[in-house]
Amino acid sequence: MGTRYEQDVVAWANEQAGLLRAGKLTAIDVEHIAEEIEDVGKSEQRELASRMPVLLAHLLKWQHQPGRRSKSWQFTIRTQRKEVAYVLSEAPSLRGKFGDEAWLDIVWSKARSIASNETGLDLDAFPEAFPWQVDEVLSSEFYAE
């Protein structure tokens, strides 16, 4: 094997792709390839888990501070919705996360914290339980009024 995984992951990946395309399966680094494949899925999950709290926090801000609503907040809400939609189009199986209560609780908790920090409102000002349907949150028509 040429480049070691630990030395240069990009060079290693290119070499591994070449070996796979050439059918040299006995020469591939199976363990690291398996890890990289798993990491692709984890990366998409992290992306969704990072976008959702920002979207939800801005919806909370929109709802709880109507006098401070701005184009910036609206832009952030639209952008996060588009990014979530993109992640879901690339990995439709991640829609299952929305039915995972533990995952949704973590995302909601992060959203409440962000909203509290950014508004100066006490954490208790925001509902403890997720108050909306996920489909509403992802709808371009929905703004928590």
Describe the structure.
The chain is an all-alpha fold. The mean pLDDT is 95. The chain has five helices and no strands. It has a domain at 43-138. It is elongated, with a radius of gyration of 20 Å.
Q: What amount of the residues lies in strands?
A: under 5%
Radius of gyration: 20 Å
Biggest sheet features = none
User: Which percent range fits the helix content?
Assistant: 55-70%
Following the backbone from N to C, one meets helices and strands in this order, namely HHHHH
Number of helices: 5
Cα-to-Cα separation, first versus last residue = 60 Å
Structural class comes to mainly alpha
Q: Averaging pLDDT over every residue, what do you get?
A: 95
Tally of strands? 0
Which term fits the overall shape?
elongated
Low-confidence stretches: none
